[in-house]
Specification:
Length: 483
Protein backbone atom coordinates (compact mmCIF):
# COMPACT_ATOMS: atom_id res chain seq x y z
CA UNK A 1 0.00 0.00 0.00
CA UNK A 2 1.44 3.36 -0.97
CA UNK A 3 0.90 6.18 1.52
CA UNK A 4 0.26 9.66 0.16
CA UNK A 5 -0.41 12.88 2.00
CA UNK A 6 -2.11 15.81 0.27
CA UNK A 7 -1.15 19.12 1.89
CA UNK A 8 -3.22 22.14 0.93
CA UNK A 9 -4.82 25.32 2.21
CA UNK A 10 -8.35 24.48 1.00
CA UNK A 11 -10.59 21.46 0.49
CA UNK A 12 -14.33 21.13 0.03
CA UNK A 13 -16.54 20.78 2.01
CA UNK A 14 -14.45 22.46 4.70
CA UNK A 15 -13.15 25.62 3.09
CA UNK A 16 -13.22 26.95 -0.46
CA UNK A 17 -12.22 30.11 -2.26
CA UNK A 18 -11.72 28.56 -5.69
CA UNK A 19 -11.15 25.46 -7.78
CA UNK A 20 -8.20 24.34 -5.62
CA UNK A 21 -10.70 23.31 -2.95
CA UNK A 22 -12.75 21.30 -5.43
CA UNK A 23 -9.66 19.41 -6.56
CA UNK A 24 -8.22 18.68 -3.12
CA UNK A 25 -11.63 17.70 -1.78
CA UNK A 26 -12.59 15.37 -4.62
CA UNK A 27 -9.52 13.80 -6.27
CA UNK A 28 -8.53 11.69 -3.19
CA UNK A 29 -11.83 9.82 -3.42
CA UNK A 30 -10.95 8.50 -6.84
CA UNK A 31 -7.68 6.69 -6.17
CA UNK A 32 -7.59 2.91 -6.11
CA UNK A 33 -8.17 2.29 -2.41
CA UNK A 34 -6.55 -1.15 -2.52
CA UNK A 35 -3.25 0.36 -3.55
CA UNK A 36 -3.17 3.96 -2.34
CA UNK A 37 -3.85 5.28 1.13
CA UNK A 38 -4.39 8.98 0.38
CA UNK A 39 -5.02 11.36 3.27
CA UNK A 40 -5.43 15.13 3.32
CA UNK A 41 -4.07 17.77 5.71
CA UNK A 42 -5.43 21.33 5.85
CA UNK A 43 -5.57 24.13 8.45
CA UNK A 44 -8.38 24.08 10.97
CA UNK A 45 -9.65 27.58 10.20
CA UNK A 46 -12.02 29.18 12.61
CA UNK A 47 -14.23 30.02 9.61
CA UNK A 48 -14.92 26.35 8.79
CA UNK A 49 -18.62 25.72 9.40
CA UNK A 50 -19.35 24.92 13.05
CA UNK A 51 -21.24 21.77 12.13
CA UNK A 52 -18.11 20.35 10.46
CA UNK A 53 -15.74 21.60 13.16
CA UNK A 54 -17.79 19.74 15.73
CA UNK A 55 -17.19 16.43 13.97
CA UNK A 56 -13.41 16.75 14.14
CA UNK A 57 -11.73 14.62 16.77
CA UNK A 58 -8.69 15.79 18.67
CA UNK A 59 -5.74 13.44 18.12
CA UNK A 60 -2.76 15.04 19.79
CA UNK A 61 -0.74 18.21 20.24
CA UNK A 62 2.85 19.12 19.57
CA UNK A 63 5.07 22.14 19.10
CA UNK A 64 6.46 23.64 15.94
CA UNK A 65 9.78 25.46 15.87
CA UNK A 66 9.98 28.40 13.48
CA UNK A 67 13.34 30.04 13.86
CA UNK A 68 13.17 31.73 17.30
CA UNK A 69 9.45 30.97 17.83
CA UNK A 70 7.93 27.83 19.19
CA UNK A 71 4.23 27.54 18.36
CA UNK A 72 1.50 25.24 19.53
CA UNK A 73 -0.12 22.82 17.10
CA UNK A 74 -3.12 20.63 17.69
CA UNK A 75 -4.03 17.89 15.27
CA UNK A 76 -7.61 16.78 14.69
CA UNK A 77 -8.94 14.13 12.36
CA UNK A 78 -12.17 13.26 10.63
CA UNK A 79 -13.25 10.87 7.93
CA UNK A 80 -15.30 12.41 5.16
CA UNK A 81 -16.66 10.51 2.15
CA UNK A 82 -14.22 7.66 2.80
CA UNK A 83 -11.16 9.94 2.98
CA UNK A 84 -9.18 10.68 6.12
CA UNK A 85 -8.67 14.38 6.80
CA UNK A 86 -6.30 15.95 9.31
CA UNK A 87 -6.64 19.51 10.53
CA UNK A 88 -3.83 21.57 12.00
CA UNK A 89 -5.17 23.65 14.82
CA UNK A 90 -3.73 26.93 15.96
CA UNK A 91 -6.16 29.69 16.82
CA UNK A 92 -3.53 32.37 16.56
CA UNK A 93 -2.85 31.73 12.88
CA UNK A 94 -6.13 30.31 11.64
CA UNK A 95 -8.62 32.76 13.15
CA UNK A 96 -10.54 35.35 11.12
CA UNK A 97 -13.45 35.22 8.72
CA UNK A 98 -11.41 34.13 5.69
CA UNK A 99 -8.49 31.77 5.11
CA UNK A 100 -6.20 34.40 3.60
CA UNK A 101 -5.28 37.98 4.27
CA UNK A 102 -6.68 38.09 7.80
CA UNK A 103 -5.15 38.73 11.18
CA UNK A 104 -1.69 37.33 10.64
CA UNK A 105 0.56 37.76 7.70
CA UNK A 106 0.06 34.91 5.27
CA UNK A 107 3.82 34.58 5.05
CA UNK A 108 4.03 33.52 8.68
CA UNK A 109 0.76 31.60 8.62
CA UNK A 110 1.80 29.28 5.81
CA UNK A 111 5.40 29.00 6.91
CA UNK A 112 3.87 27.68 10.10
CA UNK A 113 1.46 25.39 8.25
CA UNK A 114 4.21 23.83 6.11
CA UNK A 115 6.37 23.09 9.12
CA UNK A 116 3.39 21.89 11.15
CA UNK A 117 2.45 19.40 8.39
CA UNK A 118 5.91 17.85 8.53
CA UNK A 119 6.06 17.78 12.32
CA UNK A 120 2.59 16.23 12.53
CA UNK A 121 3.60 13.03 10.74
CA UNK A 122 5.36 11.17 13.57
CA UNK A 123 2.71 12.47 15.98
CA UNK A 124 -0.09 10.80 14.02
CA UNK A 125 2.04 7.79 13.12
CA UNK A 126 1.67 8.30 9.36
CA UNK A 127 4.87 8.04 7.37
CA UNK A 128 3.91 8.89 3.80
CA UNK A 129 5.89 7.71 0.81
CA UNK A 130 5.04 10.98 -0.85
CA UNK A 131 3.67 14.39 0.03
CA UNK A 132 1.61 16.01 -2.69
CA UNK A 133 1.79 19.78 -2.18
CA UNK A 134 -0.71 22.20 -3.71
CA UNK A 135 0.10 25.82 -4.55
CA UNK A 136 2.36 28.33 -2.81
CA UNK A 137 0.87 27.82 0.65
CA UNK A 138 2.65 24.45 0.81
CA UNK A 139 5.75 25.43 -1.19
CA UNK A 140 8.00 25.36 1.85
CA UNK A 141 7.28 21.67 2.51
CA UNK A 142 9.69 20.34 -0.14
CA UNK A 143 12.21 22.99 0.94
CA UNK A 144 12.22 22.04 4.62
CA UNK A 145 12.12 18.36 3.79
CA UNK A 146 15.31 18.56 1.75
CA UNK A 147 17.06 21.20 3.82
CA UNK A 148 16.18 20.45 7.44
CA UNK A 149 15.03 16.83 7.53
CA UNK A 150 17.38 15.12 5.07
CA UNK A 151 19.37 13.48 7.85
CA UNK A 152 16.31 12.26 9.71
CA UNK A 153 15.40 8.60 9.19
CA UNK A 154 11.67 9.17 9.44
CA UNK A 155 11.69 11.77 6.65
CA UNK A 156 14.61 11.02 4.41
CA UNK A 157 12.81 8.85 1.84
CA UNK A 158 9.67 10.94 1.50
CA UNK A 159 9.16 12.15 -2.07
CA UNK A 160 7.36 15.36 -3.00
CA UNK A 161 5.16 16.60 -5.83
CA UNK A 162 4.38 20.28 -6.25
CA UNK A 163 1.17 21.02 -8.14
CA UNK A 164 0.65 24.47 -9.62
CA UNK A 165 -3.01 25.42 -9.66
CA UNK A 166 -2.23 29.01 -10.46
CA UNK A 167 1.26 30.31 -11.20
CA UNK A 168 0.20 33.88 -10.58
CA UNK A 169 -0.04 33.32 -6.84
CA UNK A 170 3.50 32.81 -5.67
CA UNK A 171 3.68 33.52 -1.96
CA UNK A 172 6.21 36.29 -2.49
CA UNK A 173 7.57 38.38 0.40
CA UNK A 174 10.64 40.32 1.33
CA UNK A 175 13.51 38.03 2.11
CA UNK A 176 14.13 39.21 5.65
CA UNK A 177 10.58 38.31 6.59
CA UNK A 178 10.87 34.81 5.14
CA UNK A 179 14.22 34.28 6.83
CA UNK A 180 12.69 35.36 10.11
CA UNK A 181 9.73 32.96 9.95
CA UNK A 182 11.52 29.98 8.42
CA UNK A 183 15.00 30.20 9.87
CA UNK A 184 16.39 29.47 6.39
CA UNK A 185 19.85 30.95 5.95
CA UNK A 186 21.11 33.44 3.32
CA UNK A 187 22.38 30.61 1.15
CA UNK A 188 18.80 29.63 0.26
CA UNK A 189 17.98 33.03 -1.17
CA UNK A 190 19.92 32.84 -4.39
CA UNK A 191 18.40 32.97 -7.87
CA UNK A 192 18.59 29.19 -8.23
CA UNK A 193 16.65 28.71 -4.99
CA UNK A 194 14.00 30.89 -3.30
CA UNK A 195 15.03 34.31 -4.58
CA UNK A 196 12.72 36.01 -7.10
CA UNK A 197 13.45 39.58 -8.22
CA UNK A 198 14.96 40.49 -4.90
CA UNK A 199 12.17 38.88 -2.87
CA UNK A 200 11.66 35.32 -1.75
CA UNK A 201 8.91 33.04 -3.06
CA UNK A 202 7.41 29.99 -1.38
CA UNK A 203 6.14 28.61 -4.66
CA UNK A 204 9.55 28.95 -6.24
CA UNK A 205 11.02 27.06 -3.29
CA UNK A 206 8.55 24.26 -3.91
CA UNK A 207 9.30 24.21 -7.63
CA UNK A 208 13.05 24.04 -7.03
CA UNK A 209 12.98 21.35 -4.34
CA UNK A 210 10.05 19.08 -5.30
CA UNK A 211 10.86 15.79 -7.02
CA UNK A 212 8.13 16.36 -9.57
CA UNK A 213 6.06 19.34 -10.71
CA UNK A 214 2.60 19.11 -12.14
CA UNK A 215 -0.01 21.57 -13.27
CA UNK A 216 -3.66 21.12 -14.06
CA UNK A 217 -3.77 20.90 -17.85
CA UNK A 218 -1.39 19.98 -20.63
CA UNK A 219 -1.71 23.31 -22.40
CA UNK A 220 -0.97 25.29 -19.26
CA UNK A 221 2.08 23.09 -18.66
CA UNK A 222 3.35 24.29 -22.04
CA UNK A 223 2.24 27.90 -21.67
CA UNK A 224 4.03 28.48 -18.36
CA UNK A 225 7.34 27.77 -20.03
CA UNK A 226 6.90 31.00 -22.02
CA UNK A 227 7.53 34.53 -20.73
CA UNK A 228 3.92 35.56 -21.41
CA UNK A 229 2.39 33.03 -19.01
CA UNK A 230 5.48 32.20 -16.99
CA UNK A 231 5.08 34.86 -14.28
CA UNK A 232 8.87 35.22 -14.09
CA UNK A 233 9.29 31.50 -13.42
CA UNK A 234 9.43 30.32 -17.04
CA UNK A 235 13.21 29.98 -16.86
CA UNK A 236 12.99 27.62 -13.92
CA UNK A 237 10.11 25.69 -15.47
CA UNK A 238 12.08 25.25 -18.67
CA UNK A 239 15.06 24.03 -16.72
CA UNK A 240 12.83 21.49 -14.98
CA UNK A 241 10.71 20.64 -18.01
CA UNK A 242 11.57 16.93 -17.69
CA UNK A 243 9.92 16.88 -14.30
CA UNK A 244 6.95 19.03 -15.31
CA UNK A 245 3.70 17.51 -16.53
CA UNK A 246 0.13 18.56 -17.10
CA UNK A 247 -2.70 16.42 -15.76
CA UNK A 248 -6.12 17.83 -16.47
CA UNK A 249 -8.58 18.28 -13.60
CA UNK A 250 -11.80 16.38 -13.32
CA UNK A 251 -14.92 17.21 -11.34
CA UNK A 252 -16.83 15.18 -8.82
CA UNK A 253 -19.46 13.39 -10.90
CA UNK A 254 -21.48 12.62 -7.78
CA UNK A 255 -21.79 16.26 -6.69
CA UNK A 256 -22.31 17.54 -10.21
CA UNK A 257 -24.92 15.30 -11.73
CA UNK A 258 -28.02 16.84 -13.32
CA UNK A 259 -29.86 13.57 -12.81
CA UNK A 260 -29.60 13.59 -9.02
CA UNK A 261 -28.69 17.19 -8.09
CA UNK A 262 -31.01 18.32 -5.30
CA UNK A 263 -30.10 21.98 -5.76
CA UNK A 264 -31.75 22.32 -9.17
CA UNK A 265 -35.44 22.71 -10.00
CA UNK A 266 -35.89 19.70 -12.27
CA UNK A 267 -33.51 16.78 -12.77
CA UNK A 268 -32.56 15.59 -16.23
CA UNK A 269 -29.99 13.58 -18.09
CA UNK A 270 -28.83 13.13 -21.64
CA UNK A 271 -31.94 11.15 -22.56
CA UNK A 272 -34.49 13.80 -21.54
CA UNK A 273 -32.67 17.15 -21.47
CA UNK A 274 -34.68 18.34 -24.50
CA UNK A 275 -37.79 18.28 -22.39
CA UNK A 276 -36.56 18.93 -18.86
CA UNK A 277 -33.50 21.20 -18.95
CA UNK A 278 -35.68 24.11 -20.10
CA UNK A 279 -37.74 23.83 -16.91
CA UNK A 280 -34.67 24.89 -14.97
CA UNK A 281 -34.28 27.91 -17.20
CA UNK A 282 -37.87 28.96 -16.60
CA UNK A 283 -37.45 28.49 -12.85
CA UNK A 284 -34.26 30.56 -12.75
CA UNK A 285 -35.69 33.37 -14.87
CA UNK A 286 -38.58 33.53 -12.43
CA UNK A 287 -36.43 33.30 -9.30
CA UNK A 288 -34.13 36.10 -10.43
CA UNK A 289 -36.88 38.31 -11.81
CA UNK A 290 -35.69 38.03 -15.38
CA UNK A 291 -37.92 38.25 -18.43
CA UNK A 292 -39.45 34.89 -19.24
CA UNK A 293 -38.97 33.32 -22.65
CA UNK A 294 -37.61 30.01 -23.87
CA UNK A 295 -36.12 31.75 -26.88
CA UNK A 296 -34.00 34.19 -24.85
CA UNK A 297 -30.33 33.24 -25.04
CA UNK A 298 -29.47 32.87 -21.36
CA UNK A 299 -25.74 33.16 -20.69
CA UNK A 300 -24.28 32.26 -17.29
CA UNK A 301 -21.13 33.33 -15.46
CA UNK A 302 -19.99 31.83 -12.14
CA UNK A 303 -16.59 33.16 -11.23
CA UNK A 304 -14.14 34.96 -9.05
CA UNK A 305 -14.39 38.48 -10.47
CA UNK A 306 -10.75 39.08 -11.34
CA UNK A 307 -8.70 40.08 -14.34
CA UNK A 308 -7.70 36.45 -14.89
CA UNK A 309 -11.22 35.62 -15.99
CA UNK A 310 -11.42 38.15 -18.82
CA UNK A 311 -13.92 40.59 -17.38
CA UNK A 312 -12.37 43.54 -19.12
CA UNK A 313 -13.43 41.94 -22.43
CA UNK A 314 -16.98 41.66 -21.17
CA UNK A 315 -16.95 45.26 -19.88
CA UNK A 316 -15.81 46.46 -23.28
CA UNK A 317 -18.71 45.00 -25.27
CA UNK A 318 -21.41 44.72 -22.65
CA UNK A 319 -23.62 47.38 -24.23
CA UNK A 320 -23.23 45.90 -27.69
CA UNK A 321 -24.07 42.48 -26.32
CA UNK A 322 -27.13 43.70 -24.47
CA UNK A 323 -28.39 45.72 -27.43
CA UNK A 324 -29.99 42.47 -28.53
CA UNK A 325 -33.28 42.06 -26.66
CA UNK A 326 -32.92 38.30 -26.79
CA UNK A 327 -29.75 38.23 -24.70
CA UNK A 328 -29.94 37.52 -21.00
CA UNK A 329 -26.98 37.33 -18.66
CA UNK A 330 -26.83 35.95 -15.14
CA UNK A 331 -23.68 36.51 -13.10
CA UNK A 332 -22.71 34.93 -9.79
CA UNK A 333 -19.41 36.03 -8.32
CA UNK A 334 -17.39 38.13 -5.94
CA UNK A 335 -14.01 39.76 -6.27
CA UNK A 336 -12.58 43.03 -7.48
CA UNK A 337 -14.83 45.93 -6.65
CA UNK A 338 -14.77 47.44 -10.12
CA UNK A 339 -16.21 44.23 -11.61
CA UNK A 340 -18.75 43.83 -8.84
CA UNK A 341 -19.93 47.39 -9.48
CA UNK A 342 -19.85 46.93 -13.23
CA UNK A 343 -22.32 44.05 -13.05
CA UNK A 344 -24.49 45.91 -10.53
CA UNK A 345 -24.56 48.81 -12.97
CA UNK A 346 -25.55 46.67 -15.93
CA UNK A 347 -28.19 44.88 -13.86
CA UNK A 348 -29.70 48.29 -13.20
CA UNK A 349 -29.35 49.43 -16.79
CA UNK A 350 -30.78 46.24 -18.33
CA UNK A 351 -33.18 45.32 -15.62
CA UNK A 352 -34.88 42.01 -16.32
CA UNK A 353 -32.16 40.89 -18.71
CA UNK A 354 -29.02 41.13 -16.60
CA UNK A 355 -28.96 39.62 -13.12
CA UNK A 356 -26.00 40.44 -10.87
CA UNK A 357 -25.60 38.17 -7.87
CA UNK A 358 -22.58 39.51 -6.04
CA UNK A 359 -22.18 36.87 -3.38
CA UNK A 360 -21.13 33.27 -2.93
CA UNK A 361 -23.74 30.54 -3.24
CA UNK A 362 -23.19 26.89 -3.94
CA UNK A 363 -26.89 26.47 -4.58
CA UNK A 364 -27.26 29.28 -7.10
CA UNK A 365 -24.12 28.10 -8.88
CA UNK A 366 -25.69 24.70 -9.53
CA UNK A 367 -28.88 26.36 -10.74
CA UNK A 368 -26.89 28.48 -13.18
CA UNK A 369 -24.94 25.48 -14.50
CA UNK A 370 -28.23 23.66 -15.06
CA UNK A 371 -30.41 26.48 -16.35
CA UNK A 372 -28.40 28.53 -18.81
CA UNK A 373 -28.02 27.90 -22.50
CA UNK A 374 -24.38 28.95 -22.60
CA UNK A 375 -21.61 29.66 -20.11
CA UNK A 376 -19.14 32.45 -20.78
CA UNK A 377 -15.50 32.12 -19.67
CA UNK A 378 -13.18 34.31 -21.75
CA UNK A 379 -10.15 33.95 -19.45
CA UNK A 380 -6.86 35.72 -20.07
CA UNK A 381 -5.22 32.59 -18.70
CA UNK A 382 -6.71 29.47 -17.16
CA UNK A 383 -4.64 26.72 -15.58
CA UNK A 384 -7.58 24.36 -15.95
CA UNK A 385 -10.94 25.83 -15.02
CA UNK A 386 -13.66 23.75 -13.46
CA UNK A 387 -16.68 25.90 -14.23
CA UNK A 388 -16.63 24.98 -17.91
CA UNK A 389 -16.48 21.29 -16.92
CA UNK A 390 -19.49 21.74 -14.69
CA UNK A 391 -21.32 23.49 -17.53
CA UNK A 392 -20.51 20.69 -19.95
CA UNK A 393 -21.84 18.14 -17.51
CA UNK A 394 -25.14 20.04 -17.33
CA UNK A 395 -25.37 20.57 -21.07
CA UNK A 396 -24.78 24.31 -20.81
CA UNK A 397 -22.45 25.08 -23.67
CA UNK A 398 -19.21 26.84 -22.77
CA UNK A 399 -18.00 29.82 -24.79
CA UNK A 400 -14.33 30.12 -23.90
CA UNK A 401 -11.04 31.59 -24.95
CA UNK A 402 -8.59 29.00 -26.20
CA UNK A 403 -6.11 29.07 -23.37
CA UNK A 404 -4.83 26.54 -20.83
CA UNK A 405 -7.38 24.06 -19.64
CA UNK A 406 -10.19 25.75 -21.55
CA UNK A 407 -8.47 24.81 -24.78
CA UNK A 408 -7.97 21.23 -23.61
CA UNK A 409 -11.51 20.60 -22.40
CA UNK A 410 -13.85 22.43 -24.77
CA UNK A 411 -14.01 21.13 -28.31
CA UNK A 412 -15.09 24.01 -30.56
CA UNK A 413 -18.15 23.33 -32.65
CA UNK A 414 -17.42 22.50 -36.24
CA UNK A 415 -20.53 23.14 -38.30
CA UNK A 416 -19.35 21.11 -41.28
CA UNK A 417 -18.72 17.91 -39.42
CA UNK A 418 -21.24 18.81 -36.75
CA UNK A 419 -18.99 17.87 -33.88
CA UNK A 420 -17.98 19.78 -30.78
CA UNK A 421 -18.97 20.53 -27.20
CA UNK A 422 -18.89 24.34 -27.13
CA UNK A 423 -17.50 27.47 -28.74
CA UNK A 424 -14.12 29.13 -28.56
CA UNK A 425 -12.07 32.05 -29.84
CA UNK A 426 -8.33 32.54 -30.03
CA UNK A 427 -7.24 36.07 -29.28
CA UNK A 428 -7.80 38.10 -26.15
CA UNK A 429 -10.06 40.44 -28.03
CA UNK A 430 -13.52 41.64 -27.02
CA UNK A 431 -15.00 41.61 -30.51
CA UNK A 432 -13.70 38.16 -31.24
CA UNK A 433 -15.50 37.06 -28.09
CA UNK A 434 -18.67 38.91 -29.07
CA UNK A 435 -18.56 37.30 -32.49
CA UNK A 436 -18.45 33.82 -30.90
CA UNK A 437 -21.33 34.63 -28.58
CA UNK A 438 -23.40 35.75 -31.55
CA UNK A 439 -22.44 32.69 -33.53
CA UNK A 440 -23.52 30.44 -30.65
CA UNK A 441 -26.73 32.41 -30.31
CA UNK A 442 -27.51 32.01 -34.00
CA UNK A 443 -27.21 28.24 -33.75
CA UNK A 444 -29.30 28.25 -30.60
CA UNK A 445 -32.03 30.27 -32.28
CA UNK A 446 -31.97 28.96 -35.83
CA UNK A 447 -30.61 25.43 -35.72
CA UNK A 448 -32.12 23.82 -32.70
CA UNK A 449 -31.33 20.29 -33.83
CA UNK A 450 -27.65 21.10 -34.21
CA UNK A 451 -27.65 22.88 -30.88
CA UNK A 452 -29.12 19.86 -29.14
CA UNK A 453 -26.56 17.62 -30.75
CA UNK A 454 -23.80 19.77 -29.24
CA UNK A 455 -25.53 19.62 -25.86
CA UNK A 456 -25.60 15.86 -26.16
CA UNK A 457 -21.86 15.74 -26.91
CA UNK A 458 -21.15 18.09 -24.01
CA UNK A 459 -23.14 15.99 -21.56
CA UNK A 460 -21.46 12.77 -22.60
CA UNK A 461 -17.86 14.09 -22.64
CA UNK A 462 -16.06 12.43 -19.72
CA UNK A 463 -14.47 14.81 -17.23
CA UNK A 464 -14.84 12.59 -14.21
CA UNK A 465 -11.64 12.02 -12.22
CA UNK A 466 -11.23 8.48 -13.54
CA UNK A 467 -8.58 9.06 -16.19
CA UNK A 468 -6.67 11.78 -14.34
CA UNK A 469 -6.55 9.89 -11.04
CA UNK A 470 -4.87 7.07 -12.99
CA UNK A 471 -2.26 9.49 -14.31
CA UNK A 472 -1.45 10.65 -10.79
CA UNK A 473 -1.20 7.03 -9.68
CA UNK A 474 1.25 6.29 -12.49
CA UNK A 475 3.33 9.28 -11.49
CA UNK A 476 3.37 8.21 -7.83
CA UNK A 477 4.46 4.72 -8.92
CA UNK A 478 7.30 6.19 -10.96
CA UNK A 479 8.51 8.31 -8.06
CA UNK A 480 8.11 5.85 -5.22
CA UNK A 481 8.35 2.54 -7.04
CA UNK A 482 5.35 0.23 -7.06
CA UNK A 483 4.29 -0.93 -3.61
P1 LIG B 1 -10.72 29.36 -10.02
O1 LIG B 1 -10.20 28.27 -9.16
O2 LIG B 1 -9.67 30.04 -10.82
O3 LIG B 1 -11.57 30.32 -9.29
P2 LIG B 1 -12.24 27.23 -11.33
O4 LIG B 1 -13.11 27.27 -12.54
O5 LIG B 1 -11.19 26.20 -11.29
O6 LIG B 1 -11.66 28.70 -11.15
O7 LIG B 1 -13.12 26.96 -10.04
C1 LIG B 1 -14.05 27.86 -9.55
C2 LIG B 1 -14.95 27.15 -8.56
O8 LIG B 1 -15.53 28.11 -7.69
C3 LIG B 1 -16.11 26.43 -9.21
O9 LIG B 1 -16.47 25.33 -8.39
C4 LIG B 1 -17.21 27.50 -9.21
O10 LIG B 1 -18.49 26.94 -9.28
C5 LIG B 1 -16.95 28.12 -7.87
N1 LIG B 1 -17.39 29.52 -7.68
C6 LIG B 1 -16.78 30.66 -8.08
N2 LIG B 1 -17.47 31.75 -7.68
C7 LIG B 1 -18.54 31.30 -7.01
C8 LIG B 1 -19.65 31.92 -6.33
N3 LIG B 1 -19.77 33.25 -6.27
N4 LIG B 1 -20.58 31.12 -5.75
C9 LIG B 1 -20.46 29.78 -5.81
N5 LIG B 1 -19.45 29.13 -6.42
C10 LIG B 1 -18.51 29.87 -7.01
C1 LIG C 1 -6.86 27.58 -9.95
C2 LIG C 1 -7.04 27.94 -11.42
C3 LIG C 1 -8.12 27.13 -12.10
C4 LIG C 1 -8.04 25.67 -11.72
C5 LIG C 1 -8.07 25.53 -10.21
C6 LIG C 1 -8.00 24.09 -9.74
O1 LIG C 1 -7.67 28.32 -9.11
O2 LIG C 1 -7.30 29.32 -11.58
O3 LIG C 1 -7.96 27.26 -13.50
O4 LIG C 1 -9.13 24.97 -12.28
O5 LIG C 1 -6.98 26.20 -9.66
O6 LIG C 1 -6.88 23.42 -10.23
Amino acid sequence: MMKILFAASEAIPFIKTGGLADVVGSLPKYFDKEKYDVRVMIPKYLCIRQELREQMKFVNKYYVKMNWRTQYAGIDEMEYDGVKYYFIDNEYYFAGPRPYGEMYQDSEKFAYFSKAVLEALPVIGFQPDLIHCHDWQTGLIPVHLKVDYAGNDFYKDIKTVMTIHNLKFQGRWIMSEIKDVTGLGDEYFTSDKLELYGDGSYLKGGLVYADMITTVSESYAEEIKTPHYGEALDGLLNARSHELRGIVNGIDYEDYDPKTDKKIAVNYDVSDFRKNKIKNKRALQKELGMEAGDGKFLIGIVSRLTDQKGFDLIAYVMDELCADENIELVVLGTGEERYENMFRHFAWKYEGRVSANIFYSEELSHKIYASCDAFLMPSAFEPCGLSQLMSLRYGTLPIVRETGGLKDTVEPYNEYEKIGTGFSFTNYNAHEMLDRVRYAQSIFQNKKRDWNKIVESAMTADFSWKASAKKYEEMYDELVGEK
